[in-house]
Amino acid sequence: MRYLILVLGDQLSFTSPALVGFDPLQDTILMIEAPGESTAVWSHKARTALFLSAMRHFANGVAERGWPLDYEQLDSEGPADFGARLQQALQRHRPQALRVVEPGEWRMQQQVEQACAQAGVPLRWLDDTHFICSRADFARWARGRKELRMEFFYREMRRQSGVLMDGDQPVGGQWNFDVDNRSPYPKRSGPGAIPAPAGFAPDAVTREVFALVERHFPDHPGELAQFAWPVTREQALQALEVFIEQRLPQFGKYQDAMWTDTPTGWHSLLSAALNLHLLDPREVVAAAEQAWRRGRVPLESAEGFIRQVIGWREFVRGVYWLDMPAMKEANHYAHVRALPAWFWTGDTRMACMRDSLKQTLALGYAHHIQRLMVTGNFALLAELSPPEVCDWYLAVYVDAIEWVELPNTAGMALHACGPRFTSKPYVASGAYIQRQSNYCQGCRYDPAARTGDDACPFTTLYWNFIDRHQQSLSANPRTALMTKNLQRMSEAERTAIRARAAEMLAGLDML
Ligand SMILES: Cc1cc2nc3c(=O)[nH]c(=O)nc-3n(C[C@H](O)[C@H](O)[C@H](O)COP(=O)(O)OP(=O)(O)OC[C@H]3O[C@@H](n4cnc5c(N)ncnc54)[C@H](O)[C@@H]3O)c2cc1C
Ligand code: SF4
Fold first, then answer.
1. Phi-psi region for residue 151, left (φ > 0), alpha (ψ -120 to 50) or beta?
2. CB 458 less than 6 A from any atom of ligand 2
3. CB–CB of 501/464 below 8 Å?
4. Peptide bond into 325 cis (omega under 30)
5. Rounded to an integer, what distance in angstroms lies between the CA atom of residue 489 and that of residue 487?
6. Full set of structural domains in the chain with CATH
7. How many angstroms does the Cα of residue 56 sit away from the middle of ligand 2?
8. Rounded to whole angstroms, how far apart are CA atoms 499 and 83?
9. What is the Å distance from ligand 1's center to 269 Cα?
10. Tens digit of pLDDT for each residue in 296-345?
11. What's the Rg (C-alpha) of the chain?
């Protein structure tokens, strides 16, 4: 055999560089389902099911092409560990080399390198051309910059790609329409009728995977009943089309809006399809730009969406590979508190957390502002241990792969990497959640109360956080105002906040 070509579960594209020049007479494709990948963190059932179903559909495509394929199923005999299964396959096939596209996790890179070294098989890594910015190009951009900022990277990506550009100027005269992306839903009428995202009834392959997941991981979190994710490229393209036609127009305006029992808002739900490589970011961006150029969607929607894809998505991937493995240990505030048990059940009295957590367990999905400003904000204010929080995020979302989950959780939500790539901690009191949602209406806590039995945990813990980190926050122009507001409070009020916060922190499980 010339090449054994390893296709990982998040590399499901027939345009993958690993398959360029594939010769069925000399090469074989290898795909491995390993139970260890579902237990490395306590993976949500829908997350495991999505990976396995998409892999099996891709394998069917390989079979249709008549290409040789060695597909190791989850329940085949052998070790649970991915690396050990790979090593066995290398020994079985004895190829001249293993070809594989660079993976989405540092841990996976180590496993592949180790397996090849132990089996004595040469390893050929290939650049992941799914991403617009290669790891090397990102490292070049970052060189000499102590602190990395998404906005400057994003402008560079716009210039280089020509997306939403008018010559060398951004269309509409500004790079960023973020200020137009923050409207809440109308408080009286709510979000109204939002067209549903494309959903896909599980076919026979997916149903078989469900049975497998229930058999192997019966005690894992999450449900499969509402699983409707795209598992093939055709479905992913359909999901993209429905989003661009029906949901992108209002995406921009309501990007930061939340509402009870409105789990998806106007968001795209395309992250999982993108991360599995069922969609290419270039085609997603082109579709959004074209919709704007044809006058179908406002610029704040097209730009807001494109910023997430060629800005944040490419940026966090670059930072991940630059800062691993240290990023995994980062803990700027030295927080060590354990994750409350209700993160795994949603059984908390805080209405905003309950809604965000329950939908996460039901769907494996929450939109960005829920992940950042509800669960993430709470985790930071409650001084939860970053590694525990990161493991939770990696476990519960269907789109979770470490290159994107870790920088978002450790870096953005928890500020665990300090100012390395975010300019300030994203903390907010209950007032923010009240403004952006209707959650507080149905809550036993009062978002305006800082002390007393009804005090909103977000509000009390927010002021406690500002109080504790007053010195560093007042030195940062982006957070100085927060400390000015604290200084206006009487010493008695501040003492009462500290006391109530201490009670809450000691009894997080009871909130
Ligand atoms: C604490 C935390 C953890 C996160 N974990 C993940 C994760 O494991 N996997 C993941 O794909 N995203 C993660 N994100 C980013 C973002 O929340 C999700 O990409 C988004 O919610 C997915 O839903 P959507 O497809 O409807 O996104 P939309 O709101 O429709 O956004 C469009 C696309 O932009 C990209 N995008 C948007 N925001 C980001 C971002 N901050 N970083 C990278 N890409 C982005 C996604 O590909 C997304 O599909 C996380 C964010 C936070 C704050
Ligand atoms: S009052 Fe506080 S805990 Fe309750 S929903 Fe509002 S922000 Fe969340």
1. alpha
2. yes
3. yes
4. yes
5. 5
6. 3-126 (3.40.50.620), 135-323 (1.25.40.80), 341-510 (1.10.579.10)
7. 42
8. 50
9. 9
10. 999 999 999 999 999 999 999 999 999 999 999 999 999 999 999 999 99
11. 23
Q: pTM for this structure?
A: 0.97
264-274 pLDDT, tens per residue?
A: 999 999 999 99
Contact 311, 131 (CB under 8 A): no
Q: Which ligand has the shortest distance to the CA of 394? A: 1
Q: Which ligand is nearest to the CA of 355?
A: 2
456 C-alpha to ligand 2 centroid (Å): 6
Inter-axis angle of helices 135-142 and 314-323, to 10 degrees? 80
Q: Which long-range contacts (CB under 8 A, 24 or more apart) does 164-173 make?
A: 164/289, 164/292, 164/302, 164/303, 164/306, 171/299, 172/299, 172/303
Query: Is the distance from the beta carbon of residue 373 to the nearest atom of ligand 2 less than 6 Å?
Result: no
Q: What are phi and psi of 125, to 5 degrees?
A: -80, 145
Lookup: tokens for 181: 């992306």
In this predicted model, what pLDDT tens digit does every residue of 160-195 receive, in sequence order? 999 999 999 999 999 999 888 889 999 999 999 999
**What's the confidence (pLDDT) of residue 501?**
98
Mark residue 213 as left, alpha or beta (left: phi above 0; alpha: psi -120 to 50; beta: remaining). Answer: alpha
